[in-house]
Specification:
This protein has two helices and nine strands; from the N terminus they run H-E-E-H-E-E-E-E-E-E-E. The chain has about 190 residues and is of the alpha+beta class.
Length: about 190
């Protein structure tokens, strides 16, 4: 009797492990960059400069290197499908790349992802990105930017869009821009 129940328990456990390993994943490639414009030309758009309280519930994106393809861990830059776009932006003096992230998420994810806080070239950025799968990918971002110097007031970059998998999207703001690509892993 004990032997039969232990065999059944092992079969159930192994099927759960296989189901977790076979869980479909999708990859998010993200580049956030600033425009190097004359600050006198930038309109004042800072109506609110705080993040919503929902950001406390977000899953943190892990920055430590991980050789396994596990969800919510940054991937090496060589995994990104926005490498050409990265180098094109990097070569232009009017753009400064603030973030270049790639990570995996399960298809059934319903939670926001908290991006690591950065401080690069005087820019401070923090916030969340939420991507849910429906007929399209539902993309919802809320990032708080604090620009360098006294001329830049903090502002929130918030966008909600429906994105088609495999396409590159550009989101624009007078002070920053974002490129994003979402694709399902085979």
């Amino acid at each position: 009797m004990f032997r039969r129940s232990s065999v059944i328990a092992m079969l159930i456990f192994s099927s759960l492990v296989q189901a977790m390993e076979a869980s479909p994943l999708y990859q998010i490639d993200l580049i956030v960059f600033s425009h190097q414009l004359d600050s006198s030309l930038v309109p004042e758009l800072s109506l609110h400069s705080t993040l919503s309280s929902a950001s406390s519930q977000a899953i943190p994106l892990q920055t430590e290197a991980n050789k396994n393809l596990t969800p919510y861990h940054l991937l090496p830059p060589s995994f990104s499908q926005l490498r050409e776009e990265y180098w094109a932006l990097h070569r232009k003096s009017q753009y400064r790349i603030l973030m270049n992230y790639s990570w995996l998420q399960p298809l059934n994810n319903q939670s926001s992802i908290a991006l690591p806080k950065i401080n690069r070239e005087g820019w401070q950025v923090e916030g969340n990105i939420r991507i849910k799968l429906a007929n399209y990918y539902l993309f919802d971002t809320e990032l708080l930017f604090s620009g360098p110097g006294d001329n830049h007031h903090p502002f929130v970059f918030a966008q909600k869009l429906r994105l088609k998998g495999g396409d590159i999207y550009y989101l624009d703001h007078p002070q920053v821009g974002m490129l994003i690509k979402i694709h399902k892993l085979a």
